[in-house]
Amino acid sequence: MIRVRSARSVDLPGVAAVLQDAFSAKLRVIVSPQPEKVRTLLEMAYTGPVQRGFDGLLVAERDGRIVGTLLVGPLYYTPEENRSIEHFAVRELGMPRMLRAAFLLWLISHRAEPGEAHVTDVAVARDYQGQGIGQLMMEYAERWARDHDRARLTLWVAEDNARARHVYEKTGFSVVRTRSNLLTRIFFGVRRWHFMEKSLDSA
């Protein structure tokens, strides 16, 4: 049985492993071609917020294994956490690579507006894909957004990611605008992105 819940610190290695597996090509470009460095940096990125009680990092768990993850936020860092992550990234990657990673992450970032819950980092372990875990996590994300008094749930998805778009449409999202970005085409092979939204005004 699949259980969806908020992540705990002990879950972070599993979260990092699922994300590294699902987004390996993108993370090689952004962070490093070395999987162990990618996983270490992913763990570091979530450690501070999870330890101080942030509950928007969701995991899907089966038999003690993390098989899916999703972030619904926005996720904020304290100044101390930002400094720790920056120092850690410089130590692991070197300053030039760290600055490049920061720029690439900025390219695909989103600034949430008041009343908005924004979904990112939706990933399911390869051997568990096609079992409805993504849809289950999205339903839990909606519950999280309602519990946190958000008016709408949003996300960005690549135009050519038909599988993900199908999951989002099944859970009530619709495309509200589309953007093109030459830089994401150069670095990630994705030129067009859809911004999808689901209103949470109804009971």
Can you walk me through this structure?
By secondary structure, the chain is an alpha+beta fold. The chain has a single domain (3-199), classed as Gcn5-related N-acetyltransferase (GNAT) (Aminopeptidase, 3-Layer(aba) Sandwich). The chain has helices at residues 12-22, 24-30, 35-51, 79-93, 95-107, 133-147, 162-170, 182-188, and strands at 3-6, 57-62, 65-73, 116-124, 152-158, 174-180, 192-199. The chain has a 7-stranded mixed beta sheet. Strand 2 and strand 3 form a beta hairpin. Helix 1 (12-22) packs across helix 3, helix 3 packs antiparallel against helix 4 (79-93) and helix 4 (79-93) packs across helix 5 (95-107). The radius of gyration is 16 Å and the shape is globular. The relative contact order is 0.14.
What would CATH call the homologous superfamily?
Gcn5-related N-acetyltransferase (GNAT)
Number of strands: 7
Low confidence ranges = none
Strand content: 15-25%
What is the C-alpha radius of gyration, as a whole number of Å? Answer: 16 Å
Q: Report the major sheet.
A: 7 strands, mixed
Q: Helicity level, as a percent range?
A: 40-55%
Order of helices and strands: EHHHEEHHEHEHEHE
Let me know the average pLDDT.
93
What global shape is seen? Answer: globular
> In terms of structural class, how would the helical and strand content be classed?
alpha+beta
Tell me what the CATH architecture is. Answer: 3-Layer(aba) Sandwich
The CATH class is Alpha Beta
Largest beta sheet: what is the strand line-up?
Answer: 1-2-3-4-5-7-6
Number of helices: 8
CATH topology type: Aminopeptidase
Report the span from N to C terminus.
28 Å
How many individual domains?
1
